[in-house]
UniProtKB/TrEMBL annotation:
Gene Ontology annotations for the cellular component aspect, listed alphabetically: cytosol
Function: The natural substrate for this enzyme may be peptidyl-tRNAs which drop off the ribosome during protein synthesis.
NCBIfam families: arch_pth2, PRK04322.1
Reaction it catalyzes: an N-acyl-L-alpha-aminoacyl-tRNA + H2O = an N-acyl-L-amino acid + a tRNA + H(+)
Pfam families: PTH2
This protein's UniProt keywords: Hydrolase
EC number: 3.1.1.29
Matching SUPFAM superfamilies: Peptidyl-tRNA hydrolase II
UniProt record similarity statement: Belongs to the PTH2 family.
Protein name in UniProt: Peptidyl-tRNA hydrolase
Length: 126
């Protein structure tokens, strides 16, 4: 049985990762994808191995979410820190579309879905 066959009929997940992107920067689709990728890897590396393993076994659910500005990213990170959720802010090097040092995204988790929903439950999908 392939990886996709194991997860094709799974209707719910216990774990996920949230990738939160600033919409005020008006990043290109490619730049947005790269910033989300950075957020995913950075947050994953900070998560406990036990959560990473469960998330990987379950199929690595990810959700891309939008916030209007940098202030919201910092508020979400603060909430994550209070709940003990692995998180990582992405700071751009400034080589292409935006100035160096611009905070573009936030990765959260992987962690239990219900915990991440306490932090991101009111955000819109990207």
């Amino acid at each position: 049985m392939t990886f996709f066959e194991r997860f094709r009929d799974k209707r719910s997940f216990d774990y996920k990762q949230c990738l939160v992107i600033r919409t005020d920067l008006k990043l290109s689709k490619g730049k947005t994808a790269v910033q989300a990728s950075h957020a995913s890897i950075l947050a994953y590396e900070r998560a406990p191995k036990s959560l990473r393993k469960k998330w990987m076994q379950e199929g690595q659910k990810k959700v891309a979410l939008a916030v209007p500005g940098v202030k919201e990213l910092y508020l979400l990170k603060e909430q994550a820190d209070k709940l003990g959720v692995a998180s990582a802010l992405v700071v751009d090097a400034g080589l292409t579309e935006i100035p160096p040092g611009t905070v573009t995204a936030l990765g959260l988790g992987p962690d239990k879905q219900e915990i991440l929903d306490k932090i991101t439950g009111k955000l819109k999908l990207l």
